[in-house]
């Protein structure tokens, strides 16, 4: 009996091989999904570790200790720290530093006298040698050059104590001076090396350039009379600690460390961003676990469907043979074995090969995409192979149910059994119902891809494909009939072959579904890629965003104008404060540079136009000359015991900063109030005149006529050029500007009378909901009305809800001389390479450096991006599956088609017409299937794509693209079409010869 | 009016031993020539040679003095064949099978529709015109093939065992239709092993032992 089955296999070896290949696909797909998931788990971890910041790759324990005051019984920090840090696989670096003064001219920024364990191995000594004995130090190259010191020079340093003078903070000597020898001059080859941790040793110092600590040995530091010292232990995770297979242990170790530190109290501080890294890895893995099965499931379903079809076709062709077997009265198991044996053997062989192929395919893809990370020596994914193999066998048996269960008489009938009978309709109805249920579940769960909702894309693809096939085939039949009536025989015969071949509808549905899976995969991959581009572009704000240490907004703008006077590559940005709940976050940007620097959202008005609207022409500000300020005013109407003081708010025109200059108490009568303001040494802008009380009192009244402000043109004292708060009225007076103050409730923040040198209300562009009451919080923290000029799809960096105003105008509306909130410098790709040095030279200290390229790199290594490679793999496998089914269908059809066309040739059908009918049949089928398949993929994408966590489980607030690009879809359609057309054309290749042989031509 | 002549032909399939040798026969317009013989005597082989499906190993097949080269040539010269296995395309309906043949041999679509209806009606197949071939019984399929042969209105009509699956009434009807074709001027060659059917023909060529003998010249 086995011999008979083997003979059948050999006789129909073409069909058997194709069936085996389809089973291979089914099992390979079932194995590939979990195998890819395992590989992605590893790749996500490896990718995030590779792109982690130093803070995310280490733990820093710090404590401030003053050896002069420390209790002798207190345990030494290094001992405590070492006891805490017992994380496996970490390397530890001890460090200590304190401020020292004596060589720098400026006592605001002292030298950092630093001990760092093993420093010599990470420095390049350019002159002299490295540290050897007590009393030796190393100086940085730039510092040595600036201070005219060389190796061998002697210097004297003293511990520096900080004096927190709010007007002029500085460091002062506090301890015995220490004479030190400069043993060598160093430069640092890799300032970003993880060895340097997060101490910011190389951060630029304003007006000085790059920071360079003075390095010394531990004994030198100990021998130096010093006060409060920052001690630290940097725990740097080595490869073993960040082994992607041991991350759980790392997380447990960190939790234990935090618990121990909490017991020690606030004296010891632990800083690490490692949990963020671990959370990011976990989030990426979670997203991958959601994403991969979405296409893994339909792939297995389609493979089983194609096996079902393949076996159905084969069985139909074998029906007379099976009828004979039944007619001979063989026992049921023999009949079953003869009927199914051929298919089952082919499927089993294919399944075994599929286990190997699936794993090898994933290994190949992961090796190509993930490099040396490997998919891990984990063959656990093979546990799905038997399930897939059983599903394939079940599909095969189901496909032969008619041949197995029908009575002999039915088998002997040559008349075809209606493939579109009520049973087929019922099966399709069940699939459509499942699609509806899973789709509704997905919608109701707000995109939760769990339970049946996870199967929604698979069922919807299948349902739409079946419905499309049901709708399209009658159309093709209609077309064929019309073609015949029109005398176009080639087209008519090709179309009839498509629509009337046995199982044509199912074959069409399968092809549509396989193309749809590929189309869906491309939708996901393309939308995600564009989403990542947007996250890295619009989400960051510009090509590069540098966060700088807090400084006045005017200083920020001045520094940026200094390094980029023509507005070609840099833009100053600061956050606007927020004072009410529900208020959108707002950015103040240099609107004149918006178009040149910011990454601008698609679909918005051009950045240049928006920038122009944010900065309409307005009155020039009032400028003051020289550092000696004066105000001549006549006071009256003050109530006894309720004195008022006068102040001027000024902003340096050259980046010296802002100041509120107190002019003293307002006196009755005409007085000239004077004060010296160093920030105005090179000219100032007047931000406002303040009347304020010296204590919290109510019922304040006064009249003040301002008749002169320094050398300002008296014409500028016209009330039309000034703005007053609600508690004051301004009017013209023969002597100048009359300010009539009547503050029944007092003046908690003073009354500011400001020059009207900004548009009021201030123009603002916004995204999302309009700010409540068209107001935003101004730089002084009070609500100000804004005029909404543009609605944007998103505000760069802030996302779908936010607002933009012009930085200079926003600055002019402020009078309190507060520093900028989150000051940043945004740069485009034309920024020079030495931009950090230039910014340092311009007085900015860079504390954060982010770039869209770095974010893009990180996103590309994150879970969704890595998981979506599987979609391409699944798409390719799916199309191959369709191609395999097509080949098998054509193979089964061949004899019958040859018979039909040879018969028609005998009756006079021309060779060319027969060739046309032969050649176009399957290419036309695949053309229709490709088109309808891509449309089905798009329709499924429209219904379910929104639920895929393409940008992670917590996507950013950006108008991420929901649809793929037209070009990607078109290219995919074309590629699929070309591939399937080649296969389809190949299936009709030798038909002509066979037909001619049958007609004697 | 077309005469089909086989002159001293040896007929063999794919270089095998000759099925018939030295066959000389002429089918004349207005006549029905019966080709009889037992099963395997070579009736289908002879009709295949007449239809251009089989090139003679020796001798010639002439249609009005023009040597037949292949089936396409025969179709061009108006040689219609109703094959023994009916030669119907399974993916088409009865009417479509006929229409395709009519259009393929130069008829217009309108002409094809008219001739299809005219051919199906006398064979009692008007009700089955739009049924797929697989849905028809063996007899209905045979009558469809006959209808197609009649609809083509050839100058030479070769009918190979076309009454084998028909009942007596239908067989009689078919012979009448063949007679009508001959009357129209066609040269009709009717291969049959049915002596009654052969008797209704004008002449009879009997095939036996690889030779053709005139039973009724």
TrEMBL record, chain A:
Protein's organism: Paractinoplanes tereljensis
Keywords recorded for this protein, A-Z: Membrane, Transmembrane, Transmembrane helix
Transmembrane segments: 290-315, 336-362, 382-400, 421-444, 456-480, 507-528, 868-892, 919-948, 968-987
UniProt-recorded name of the protein: FtsX-like permease family protein
UniProtKB/TrEMBL annotation, chain B:
Pfam families assigned: ABC_tran
Signal peptide: none
The keyword Electron transport appears for this protein: no
Stored PROSITE patterns: ABC_TRANSPORTER_2
Keywords, comma-separated and alphabetical: ATP-binding, Nucleotide-binding
InterPro entries, alphabetized: AAA+_ATPase, ABC_transporter-like_ATP-bd, ABC_transpr_LolD-like, P-loop_NTPase
Protein name (Swiss-Prot/TrEMBL): ABC transporter ATP-binding protein
Organism: Paractinoplanes tereljensis
């Amino acid at each position: 009996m086995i011999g008979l089955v083997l003979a059948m296999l050999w006789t129909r070896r073409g069909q058997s091989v194709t069936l085996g290949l389809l089973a291979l696909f089914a099992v390979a797909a079932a194995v590939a999904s979990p195998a890819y998931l395992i590989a992605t788990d590893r790749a996500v971890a490896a990718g995030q570790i590779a792109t982690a910041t130093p803070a995310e790759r280490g733990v820093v324990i710090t404590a401030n200790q003053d050896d002069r005051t420390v209790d002798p019984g207190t345990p030494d920090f290094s001992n405590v720290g070492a006891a805490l840090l017992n994380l496996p696989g970490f390397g530890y670096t001890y460090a200590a530093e304190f401020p020292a003064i004596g060589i720098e001219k400026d006592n605001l920024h002292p030298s950092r006298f630093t001990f760092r364990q093993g420093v010599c191995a990470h420095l390049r000594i350019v002159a002299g040698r490295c540290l050897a004995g007590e009393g030796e130090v190393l100086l940085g190259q730039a510092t040595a050059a600036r201070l005219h010191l060389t190796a061998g020079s002697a210097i004297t340093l003293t511990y520096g104590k900080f004096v927190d003078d709010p007007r002029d903070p500085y460091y002062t000597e506090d301890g015995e001076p220490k004479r030190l020898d400069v043993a060598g001059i160093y430069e640092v080859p890799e300032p970003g090396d993880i060895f340097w941790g997060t101490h910011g040793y190389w951060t630029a110092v304003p007006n000085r350039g790059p920071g360079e600590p003075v390095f010394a040995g531990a004994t030198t530091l100990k021998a130096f009379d010093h006060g409060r010292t920052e001690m630290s232990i940097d725990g740097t995770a080595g490869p073993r600690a960040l082994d992607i297979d041991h991350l759980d242990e790392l997380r447990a170790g960190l939790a234990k460390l935090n618990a121990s530190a909490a017991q020690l109290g606030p004296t010891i501080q632990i800083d690490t961003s490692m949990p963020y890294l671990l959370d990011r890895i976990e989030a990426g893995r979670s997203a991958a676990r959601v994403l991969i099965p979405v296409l893994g499931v339909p792939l297995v379903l389609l493979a089983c469907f194609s096996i079902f079809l393949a076996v159905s076709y084969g069985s139909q062709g074998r029906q007379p043979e099976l009828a004979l077997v039944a007619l001979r009265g063989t026992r049921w198991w023999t009949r079953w074995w003869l009927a199914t044996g051929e298919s089952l053997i082919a499927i089993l062989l294919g399944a075994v090969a599929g286990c190997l192929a699936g794993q090898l395919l994933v290994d190949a893809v992961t090796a190509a995409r993930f490099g040396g990370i490997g998919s891990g020596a984990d063959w656990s994914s093979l546990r799905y192979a038997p399930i897939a193999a059983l599903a394939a066998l079940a599909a095969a048996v189901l496909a032969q149910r008619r041949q197995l269960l029908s009575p002999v008489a039915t088998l002997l009938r040559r008349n075809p059994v209606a493939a579109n009978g009520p049973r087929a309709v019922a099966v399709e109805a069940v699939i459509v119902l499942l699609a509806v249920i899973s789709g509704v579940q997905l919608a109701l769960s707000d995109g939760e891809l769990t339970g049946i909702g996870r199967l929604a894309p698979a069922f919807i693809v299948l349902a739409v494909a079946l419905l499309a096939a049901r709708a399209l085939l009658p159309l093709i039949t209609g077309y064929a009939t019309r073609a015949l009536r029109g005398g176009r025989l080639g087209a008519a015969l090709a179309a009839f072959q498509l629509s009337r071949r046995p199982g044509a509808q199912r074959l069409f549905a399968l092809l549509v579904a396989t193309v749809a899976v590929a189309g869906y995969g491309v939708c996901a991959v393309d939308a995600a890629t564009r989403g990542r581009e947007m996250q890295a572009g619009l989400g960051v704000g510009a090509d590069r965003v540098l966060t700088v240490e807090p400084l006045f907004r005017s200083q920020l703008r001045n520094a940026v104008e200094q390094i980029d006077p023509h507005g070609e590559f840099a833009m100053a940005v600061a956050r606007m404060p927020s004072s009410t709940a529900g208020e959108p976050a707002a950015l103040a940007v240099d609107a004149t540079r918006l178009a040149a620097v910011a990454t601008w959202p698609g679909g918005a008005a051009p950045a240049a136009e928006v920038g122009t609207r944010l900065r309409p022409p307005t009155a020039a500000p009032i400028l003051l000359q020289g550092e000696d300020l004066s105000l001549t005013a006549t006071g009256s109407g003050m109530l006894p015991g309720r004195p008022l003081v006068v102040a001027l708010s000024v902003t340096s025109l050259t980046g010296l900063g802002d100041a509120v200059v107190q002019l003293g108490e307002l006196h009755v009568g005409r007085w000239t109030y004077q004060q010296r303001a160093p920030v105005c040494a090179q000219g100032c802008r007047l931000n406002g005149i303040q009347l304020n009380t010296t204590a919290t009192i109510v019922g304040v009244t006064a009249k003040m006529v301002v008749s002169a402000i320094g050398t300002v043109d008296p014409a500028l004292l016209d009330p039309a050029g000034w703005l007053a708060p609600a508690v004051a009225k301004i009017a013209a007076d023969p002597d100048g500007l009359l300010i009539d103050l009547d503050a029944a409730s007092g003046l908690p923040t003073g009354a500011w009378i400001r020059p009207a040198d900004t548009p009021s209300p201030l123009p603002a562009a916004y995204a999302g909901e309009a700010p409540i009451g068209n107001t935003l919080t101004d730089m002084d923290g009070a609500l100000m009305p804004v005029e909404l000029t543009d609605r944007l799809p998103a505000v760069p960096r802030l996302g779908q809800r936010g607002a933009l105003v012009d930085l200079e105008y926003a600055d002019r509306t402020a009078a309190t001389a507060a520093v900028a909130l989150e000051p940043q410098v945004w740069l485009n790709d034309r920024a020079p390479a030495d931009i950090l040095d230039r910014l340092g030279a311009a007085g900015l200290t860079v504390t954060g450096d982010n770039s869209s390229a770095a974010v893009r790199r990180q996103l590309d290594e994150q879970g969704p991006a890595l998981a979506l490679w599987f979609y391409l793999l699944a798409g390719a496998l799916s199309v191959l599956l369709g191609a395999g089914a097509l080949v098998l269908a054509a193979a089964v059809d061949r004899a019958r088609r040859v018979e039909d066309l040879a018969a028609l040739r005998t009756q006079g059908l021309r060779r060319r017409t027969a060739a046309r009918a032969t050649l176009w049949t399957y290419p036309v089928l695949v053309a229709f299937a490709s088109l309808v398949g891509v449309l089905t993929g798009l329709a499924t994408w429209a219904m379910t794509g929104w639920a895929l966590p393409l940008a992670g489980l917590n996507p950013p607030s950006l108008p991420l693209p929901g649809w793929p690009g037209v070009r990607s879809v078109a290219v995919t359609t074309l590629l699929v079409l070309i591939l399937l057309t080649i296969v389809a054309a190949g299936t009709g290749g030798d038909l002509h010869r066979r037909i001619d042989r049958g007609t004697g031509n | 009016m077309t005469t089909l002549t086989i002159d001293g032909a040896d007929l063999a399939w794919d270089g095998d031993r000759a099925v018939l040798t030295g066959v000389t026969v002429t089918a004349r317009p207005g006549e029905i020539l019966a080709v009889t013989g037992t099963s395997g005597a070579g009736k289908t082989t002879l009709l295949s040679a007449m239809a251009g499906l089989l090139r003679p190993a020796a001798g010639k097949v002439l249609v009005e003095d023009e040597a037949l080269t292949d089936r396409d040539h025969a179709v061009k010269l108006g040689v219609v064949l109703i094959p023994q296995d009916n030669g119907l395309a399974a993916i088409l309906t009865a009417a479509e099978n006929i229409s395709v043949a009519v259009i393929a041999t130069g008829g217009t679509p309108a002409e094809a529709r008219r001739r299809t209806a005219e051919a199906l009606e006398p064979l009692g197949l008007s009700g089955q015109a739009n049924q797929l071939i697989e849905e028809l019984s063996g007899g209905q399929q045979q009558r469809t093939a006959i209808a197609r042969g009649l609809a083509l209105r050839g100058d030479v009509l070769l009918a190979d065992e076309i009454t084998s699956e028909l009942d007596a009434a239908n067989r009689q009807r078919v012979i009448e239709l063949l007679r009508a074709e001959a009357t129209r001027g066609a040269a009709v060659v009717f291969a049959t092993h049915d002596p009654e059917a052969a008797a209704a023909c004008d002449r009879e060529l009997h095939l036996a032992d690889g030779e053709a003998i005139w039973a009724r010249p």
